[in-house]
Give the backbone structure.
Amino acid sequence: MTKKRPTAKQSRRRSTVAPVRALHLDLKGLPPTAPRLTEIMELAKASGYNALLVEWEDQFPWKDERFRNETCYSVQEVETFHREAARLGMEIIPLVQCLGHMETWLRPPEFEGLRETARYVDVLNPLAPGAGAFIEGLVDEVLAKTPGCKWFHLGGDEAWTFGTHPDTKAFVEKHGKGALYLKHVEPILDRLIARGVRPILWHDMMLEWDLPALKALGKKADLCVWGYGRYDRVGSPWMKALGKAEAASKPPILQGGGGHAACDALFKRFLAAGVPLWGGGAYKAGVRGLMHPDLPDHEARLINTADWAVFAQRFPLQGLMNTAWSRNTTDACQYIPIDAALDLLVAGGLVWSGAAKAAGNLLKPDAAWKAKVLARSMALLKKRGEAARFEACRDVMHRLNRQRLAGWENAIKPRETLACFESDPRRKSLLSPEKSLGYLKDHQIKSIEGLRGEILKTYHGLIPDLWLNRYVDERLEPLKQEHAELSARLKRLMGD
């Protein structure tokens, strides 16, 4: 008896494999050296990824040198990177921002006229003369260095001041935000489509679009829905309350752009408008915590990996993108070197490709599932000769993070004590500035400065020293400043 072949829908539900599995390279912070970039690509391929989402930012050898950083790749290094990608069969998806996160390009004073708000350099005014041509020039420059490009990511997310310039505000009041967005991006989309390249945009700016606007967009671009953690309004009280349709979502609801993001209701709405969809998770992200992190949250990242595997089963996604943020935004602190999170990088590829078939319920990934996935990740790192170096990179970041946390704890206590003294002067009889701040100066500040050399040695050849020194400075200098300010305040109080 001939068995019935499963329908496409059934096949998708049974498979954990997303067609395109892209590892994100966020190069605007802690950029790998050119040789290490190729090694990371080789590791990604071995882990089950078949594409790289490359956010070049100021690491690209732009013709306009104002857009380059001090260690940007050379033209030859970019060409070598693409040759290696072709050798490995890895698709390269370039990412160049088109609206928000435009700091690299709008920072020079000469570009003030392109800003949505003159004092902020992050958002492009889409109605400014030359704005569209400027983005097209950036896209063309990257395309010229990306042979065989099939997809091009235009970002387009988190344009916080979008529609606030007098010109754009008037346009939005008359036509709506969706119309303004489309007026800006459609010519860019058309240029890409004419070259056989499918554009991709992040989803968050389209959450409130009406159906006609979504349909118009879906004809010319894909959307990547991004969400990096499970919806938790208690832990994140700024999150929007869930509607009835969202609350009924079978898989977990993920937090992302615009509040809550990935859920059944959102995917169904976009798909009903004919918008091709991708999913965006994160294997390293600085989404919460007191400080910019030095290490990823393994619990949250593994759950996020499992959640996106579930969405890939439920919906016909074009692919998944495992983002790896090195800064929250272009002009923020650096965090979490790639080489301190290689186990999670590998885990994402193994799970999404179906190679890590660890027993367990992806909707409720338990400790046993996580342990098996990480064990397989470490086995692959060991096989490729990466395990020992990864463990050294992780260990030194762990020690740095521990000293930073202790340092801030030892700064908070004197601040509270100062408040006590100032509100009730009787309490300052035993005041000793040296004792109050001794641990901060003699332990944490000295320890972090001592770790600088070890970090440079451990990451030698992986990240240029310039970025490692800045990474340490971003963590050390605030504690030094805190110590100096508190010491001065305590001495003044002693003199009263």
Remarks:
- The mean pLDDT is 92.
- The radius of gyration is 24 Å.
- Residues 254 and 262 are 5 Å apart (CA to CA).
- The chain is about 50% helix and 10% strand.
